[in-house]
Amino acid sequence: MQEKMADLDREHLYLINLTTKCRPINANLISVGSLNGSVVHMREVFKSSILSNAAAFILVHNHPSGDCTPSKEDVVVTDRILKCAELLGIGLLDHIIIGGAGKYYSFRDQGVLEPHN
What we know:
117 residues; 5-stranded mixed β-sheet; 5 strands; 29% strand
């Protein structure tokens, strides 16, 4: 996804659906936004996961600025998606932000993405 998204001029949010063995089922473009933001509707996030019978998913979006630091909106949206995922029984394994020069931010690696159990 790094190569595919590194040079985009607007934010793109992709969702990668996974099997129970964490193998990719498909990747779906969920939203295309502006230079520094994107509108994310929960029904669009989970539509492909439900139709694909996914056990889990990974979110990936880019920051055209090249800075992969999450915005406040990124944190809020990720938390909302995590709560909905838990309600539906579909695991959110990570949310990755792709920046410039091969840099990325992983919510899971940074300890920000924790289950609400």
